[in-house]
Amino acid sequence: MTNSSPLTQDELKALVGQAALQYVVPGGIVGVGTGSTVNKFIDALAGMKNEISGAVSSSVASTERLKALGIAVFDANEVESLAVYIDGADEIDRQGYMVKGGGAALTREKIVAALASRFVCIVDESKLVPTLGRFPLPVEVIPMAVQHITRRFAALGGVARLRLKDGQPLVTDNGQQILDVTGLSIKDPSAFESDVNQWPGVVTVGVFAHQKASVCLVGTAQGMVKTF
Ligand code: 5RP
């Protein structure tokens, strides 16, 4: 009997996580992102751990998962460049522009992405958007600037809310806080990223335009991986 039911979101994540292995360069160090989709990639990467030197990780959570599977983790300062960085996204458009940071790891993700020649984004099809702005935009900020930055987003028509965890402001791996901004439609991602990055107190804005995806692997309900 054939099973024609569409794949679950979890199965789609596993599909693209597995598909991303083809971009890993044997003998090299791979840049590794953060999130539930990347967790599937890390699990798949464990199957070829003897063929790579190790990884540079974008979060404490990914580092712990990599190490638990026996994959060496290098500090970003130990490597000059990476052939590839593999990460998920909260949304991605057809040009490869992304919003990231749903897992609060955007700053380290952008740093590791900047080391890499190629950014391979792995997503299920729910993440595809025509224009960035559907997902609340994560912005990592210095705590003393929260109200100032909230007012600056309000002037753009956005509503910024401090991300909480267990009722308290979430603290990132870098000791900072996250604002999630709704109500934005980001028509020029490169200009938007450059502009917001200049605001005093902004550590990193979750628009990835200067570090956009070079390749996107999209898991579809039919169990196929589309590439663009
Ligand atoms: C973490 C990220 C993730 O890539 C993004 O949130 C997608 O996560 P998931 O694969 O769990 O949907 O940017 O900061």
From TrEMBL:
EC number(s) per entry: 5.3.1.6
Example GO BP: D-ribose metabolic process
MF annotations from Gene Ontology: ribose-5-phosphate isomerase activity
Catalytic activity: aldehydo-D-ribose 5-phosphate = D-ribulose 5-phosphate
Binding site for substrate: T34, G35, S36, T37, D87, G88, A89, D90, K100, G101, G102, G103, K127
UniProt pathway: Carbohydrate degradation; pentose phosphate pathway; D-ribose 5-phosphate from D-ribulose 5-phosphate (non-oxidative stage): step 1/1
Keywords: Isomerase
Gene3D superfamilies to which the protein is assigned, alphabetical: 3.30.70.260, 3.40.50.1360
GO cellular component, one term: cytosol
Active site: E109 (proton acceptor)
Known function: Catalyzes the reversible conversion of ribose-5-phosphate to ribulose 5-phosphate.
Assembly information from the UniProt record: Homodimer.
Family: Belongs to the ribose 5-phosphate isomerase family.
Stored HAMAP family: Rib_5P_isom_A (MF_00170)
Protein name: Ribose-5-phosphate isomerase A
